[in-house]
Specification:
CATH superfamily of the largest domain: Alanine racemase
Number of domains: 2
CATH class of the largest domain: Alpha Beta
Oligomer: single chain
Number of helices: 10
Number of strands: 19
Strand content: 15-25%
Largest sheet: 9 strands, mixed
Length: 383
């Protein structure tokens, strides 16, 4: 079926008793009560810590979810890519932090246009040439651009280190004609999935020390740092201890996945419930001990371990990839366990962000009912 036909079929299921079992599969499903609980829990945590929440939309790529995060108190939304920001802005999201530097003339022109369109656009910079080019573009457009310095806190993906180049870059921004310095960004993605809580705590607080040093150096130059943005779901309860961040960039907390489910905390595990699933259907059950589903490599991101069966399968059953279009389920007790053709199963995804990017929409469910369908407007927005 085409995507339009699938959407028509899906929308016909909204409100229908038992409609969840009739969703065309494979499908991306949000459990609404779990999602809302995660949303409220993180918002309450940040309020209690005196911390803003600036969640990352690269996790969900969905305007409806961004709007709900803002309504719950988020100070803005992070986007990893400019096209992602453009897609969300086109659906009313007005406060966006772009967390990746811009390089090409085309991307600078698009950022200038986006800056005219929304209430608040903040760009991260990490190189003198990027500062120069952005300043020239903003000056020509006649509207100042807000910027953060992206600090490399050990990931080495983007950002400038705290060596001899940090102060000159800060001075360059301070001297720019059309740039407004707003503070710092520092994201330690390398720490988010460190399983041991003590190790993750030690290393995360070291990162916070680096950001505190960067803030002090900027302030010594007479530059205020109202924003110090960073952290994530894996360190959400550690980073506030240092009193450095102004806002937290957690993203995966709304959904969770297999990777985050394995992260240990002092209380056991992260206190957010799995809310995102791939729903699939058994399409063949002719071989004893295994069945075949309609969700294979194309239904999941495959950069992490296999999906975890969540519902519909006998205890001890395990999912395995069976091809591009098919997945398999190995039954723990082949002589007694049984999954018939047509059985509906769901899996916790291995890695939520790239899995989301494989789908056009979420089926939002509450119990056995489909209650809504949310488009994933920024799917594939990678430029």
């Amino acid at each position: 079926m085409s995507s339009s036909v699938i959407e028509q079929v899906g929308r016909a299921l909204i409100g229908k008793p038992g409609g969840r079992s009739e969703i065309p599969t494979p499908a991306l499903v949000i459990d609404l009560p779990a999602f809302e609980a995660n949303l409220a829990r993180m918002a309450a945590h940040c309020r209690s810590e005196g911390l803003g929440l600036r969640p990352h939309a690269k996790t969900h790529k969905c305007a409806e979810i961004a709007r709900r995060q803002l309504a719950a108190g988020a100070v803005g939304i992070c986007c990893a890519k400019l096209a992602e920001a453009e897609a969300l802005a086109a659906h009313g999201v007005q406060k966006i932090l772009l967390t990746s530097p811009l390089v090409t003339k085309g991307s600078l022109a698009r950022a200038i246009a986006l800056n005219e369109l929304i209430d608040e656009l903040i760009i991260t910079v990490d190189h003198p040439d990027g500062v120069r080019d952005l300043d020239l573009a903003a000056d020509a457009a006649g509207k100042a651009m807000r910027v953060l310095i992206d600090v490399d806190v050990g990931l080495h993906r983007t950002g400038i280190g705290l060596g001899q180049d940090f102060e000159p870059l800060a001075r360059q921004i301070d001297d720019a004609r059309a740039l407004t310095f707003c503070g710092l960004q520092g994201y330690a993605g390398q720490l988010m999935h460190v399983e041991d809580n003590d190790e993750r705590t030690q290393k995360s607080l070291e990162v916070m020390d680096m950001l505190a040093t960067a803030r002090a150096r900027a302030e010594n130059l007479g530059m205020d740092c109202p924003i110090v943005s960073g952290g994530g779901t894996g360190t959400y309860d550690i980073d506030p201890q240092a009193g450095v961040l102004s806002d937290l960039q957690g993203g995966s907390y709304i959904f969770m996945d297999r990777q985050y489910g394995e992260v240990a905390t002092k209380e056991g595990r992260l206190p957010f419930a799995p809310a995102l699933f791939v729903q699939m259907t058994v399409i063949s059950a002719n071989t004893p001990g295994i069945v075949t589903t309609d969700a294979g490599f194309k239904a999941f991101a495959t950069d992490a371990d296999a999906p975890v069966l969540h519902s519909g399968a006998p205890e001890g059953a395990a999912f395995f990839f069976f091809g591009d279009e098919q997945g398999g389920v190995a039954l723990a007790n082949p002589e007694t366990d049984h999954l018939p053709r047509g059985a509906v199963l769901s899996c916790i995804v291995p890695h939520c962000d790239p899995t989301v990017n494989l789908y056009d929409a979420y089926y939002v469910v509450d119990g056995d009912r489909v209650v809504d369908i949310w488009p994933i407007e920024a799917r594939g927005a990678s430029q």
